[in-house]
Amino acid sequence: MKRIVFILIIILVFFVTFHYKEDIISYYNKYFIKNDRVATTLVKNGNYRDYNFNYVSNTTNFTPKNKQDILNIYYTVINSGMSNFTFYCDTDYTNCIDDVKNIANSQVTISNINNFVHPYNGFKDLETGFGENGKITLKINRNYTEDMKIILDYKIDDIIKKYINDDMTTREKIKTIHDYIINNTKYDQARSDKNIINYKSDTAYGALIEGYALCGGYTDSMMLFLEKFGIKSYRISSDNHIWNYVYLDNNWYNLDLTWDDPITSDGKDILEDNFFLISDSKLLELDTKEHMFDKTVYSE
User: Fold this and answer.
1) What string of H, E and C letters represents the secondary structure of the chain?
2) Taking the model in full, what pTM does it have?
């Protein structure tokens, strides 16, 4: 009799365990292994930017409770310059993994986040991994090597020493660099039209060192100088174009060096300033196709 009762109890326990397994796992994760679910300690490099924006902001909360928390974690980690980072979903955030996957699988979203960080901390590619108990891992491959950064920093400092002085206004400094980059850089038409890659033209290295750039190279170059001048900015992009967005005199302005360095039929170099520190309304007046950006992301 005792044996039968024991067997029935075992069956009952098995049935209850199977029926409520999700609740049991959730309870166990929440109260027994929570202390083991510790995010990687954030380490910031010298190119970390202490800027918060409407779309993303730096955070110290690495246990996300909603989608905005996840966006902020991605931004903070990319902004820090770290190559590997681990964080965990909050145990009460049931849609966390799905939301992370949606963000990670959207190249547009990831690229938008990347636009808010220093070019040197921007990624070439980013991998998101998923483990047990809500574990999320980020692996980031940077766009600029250490050698590239050393060469670029030397070049930028040399340009500033030669062409910038303390008597200039901030606007004059930006205009001087705008003109220098355009006068010393050609648009890499072979790469844009035929995908012939001879230069690192999607980076500031291509523009400032090799003398050839795509829109990304023009934009990164300008942003590096803006960082040197202590001017808040970020990169703003449409479906197939990117340019600078600059905070000056309590206002945000568009700055597009690519479009101020037009391609001519006879190959003649031209320097324009039609897209130099202009408002959104002026930008859309000049062009309504290449500069159509997502105002929910770049809402400043």
Assistant:
1) CHHHHHHHHHHHHHHHHHHCHHHHHHHHHHHCCHHHCCCCCCCCCCCCCCCCCCCCCCCCCCCCCCHHHHHHHHHHHHHHCCCEEEEECCCCCCCHHHHHHHHHCCHHHHHHHHCCCCHHHCEEEEEEEECHHHEEEEEEEECCCHHHHHHHHHHHHHHHHHHCCCCCCHHHHHHHHHHHHHHCCEECHHHHHHCCCCCCCCCHHHHHHHCEECHHHHHHHHHHHHHHCCCCEEEEECCCCEEEEEEECCEEEEECCCCCCCCCCCCCCCCCCCCCCECHHHHHHHCCCCCCCCCCCCCC
2) 0.87
